[in-house]
Amino acid sequence: MTAAHSQTMPENDPVPPQPETAHPPETAPEPDPMLDVHPPHHAASTWRDFLIHIATIVLGLLIAIGLEQTVEYFHHRHQLKEIRQELSAERDENRAILQKNLEAVKTIQAQLDRNMALLREYQSSHVPLAGKLHYSSNLYRTPDAVWQSALQGGALGLMPHDELRANVYLYEVFTSFMEAVHAFYTQAEIAEAITHRSPNGSLSTRDTEELITATSETQGKLAYAAKFLSYEATGLQKAGH
What distance in Å separates the CA atoms of residue 66 and residue 68, rounded to the nearest whole number? Predict the structure, then answer.
């Protein structure tokens, strides 16, 4: 008799482990407000209460505006102090450049006088030029970065009127000088270009006349620019006090 082969089956399917019950995170308690604002206990019931309420609001606004303007005032005062120091340093730099430009003007004037003498001699004798004509020049720019920066801020509004007027005058003179220098450079380049028409120095009668005229105009524009140097000296002295 064949023994029956029996297979033992589990009475119940294995039960998977149950996940732990998730507990909701505890809500952190809200911090107490830094400022407790309470509404009025009762609405204004009379005109007197209403006016007192409005006056309180207006007074608070005026105090806030006053504090803001006070902070801005002292901020501009601090800026003005810094601007004065920076303007003083810029004036010192411009004083040094003024001396360089005064020397440069003397050199250029002598050079132009020599050119004119050579041209007059050539015009009358028609012999080759006794020397080379020179129209090169080197004038120095007047710095104004500090002033331009100060104009963008509000600190100049606190500067006393006389001090502000002295600075405005000085920097207007600087601007006029640079404009005059630009006109001088343009005219000097025109004269230089005429000399290149005849590299060997044998200028035609027409070229000679044009070059004499151009040289004379260059001298005039240099003299005009030089006038502003004297104005610079006056302005630097006034603004420095």
Answer: 5
**Amino acid code (one letter) for 227:** K
> Residue 32 corresponds to which tokens in the numbers above?
């107490």
Burial class (CB in 10 A: 0-12, 13-18, 19+), 177: buried
The DSSP call for residue 46 is S
pLDDT tens by residue, 143-174: 999 999 999 877 788 889 999 999 999 999 99
d(C-alpha 98, C-alpha 85), whole Å? 20
CB 217 within 8 A of CB 75: no
Mean pLDDT calculated for residue range 68-77: 62
CA 77 from centre of chain: 20
CA dihedral 88, 94, 99, 101 (to 10 degrees): -170
CA–CA distance, 26 with 172 (Å, rounded to integer)? 72
The Cα angle at residue 166 between residues 160 and 169, in degrees rounded to 5: 135
The length of the chain is 241
Of the CA atoms within 13 Å of residue 112, those in its CB half-sphere come to 28
CA 78, CA 43: separation in Å to the nearest integer? 47
| Domain spans, the chain | 48-239
Report the distance separating Cα 185 and Cα 29, nearest Å: 78
| d(C-alpha 201, C-alpha 9), whole Å | 126
Dihedral sign for Cα atoms in the order 42, 46, 52, 57: positive
CA–CA separation, 65 and 69 (whole Å): 6
pTM > 0.85: no
